[in-house]
Amino acid sequence: MTNARLTIFGLFAAAATLLVAAPARAAEDNAPLVLAQGADCYAIGQRVAAQMGGQLAAANAENQGGQIVCRIVVLIPGGNGERPRREEVVVPAR
Q1: What residue numbers bound the domain in which 9 lies?
Q2: Which of 11, 17, 70, 76 is most deeply buried (CB count within 10 A of its CB)?
């Protein structure tokens, strides 16, 4: 009876370890790719914001029809004390 309990406990412990470790390992494998795309989009976003005369609010990589694009959000200062205007631009990731 004791061996059966230990075996069942061991199986549950092994399964729990796999369930916890598998997503973490998958995230680690994908992390450099996602970070690299995010870093490229951030740099592109900085350039776009400077060209538009605004401040970069967000830069995210997306897949649109098999192409990687950057969705850039720029805040452009409003005139006469108005709120900043939010502009969203989608550009190809280079």
Answers
A1: 2-92
A2: 70
